[in-house]
Amino acid sequence: xxxxxxxxxxxxxxxxxxxxxxxxxxxxxxxxIELKDxxxxxxxxxxxxxxxxxxxxxxxxxxGYTVQSQSYVTEKAFEPARLTGIITCR
Length: 90
What we know:
Strand content: 35-45%
Shape: elongated
Mean pLDDT: 75
Number of domains: 1
Largest sheet: 4 strands, antiparallel
Helix content: 25-40%
Order of helices and strands: HEEHEE
Low-confidence stretches: 4-19
Structural class: alpha+beta
Number of helices: 2
């Protein structure tokens, strides 16, 4: 029981760690998604930021999507990174 509680708490804590996302509709089932790290993880693990970006894309396009472009930007070491991309819903 204690392990289950710790697992649930860990998921709740880590699910909010990726920062802030912005979604802009571009028309023709296309969307631009920008996800910013909140600085606490600095996405030295860029795969974590990409996982969160893909999660946002799946929420927007539950039927699937195609990535048209994607760019990962870090302006300075140990400062918030961002992942921006354009998807088209299927």
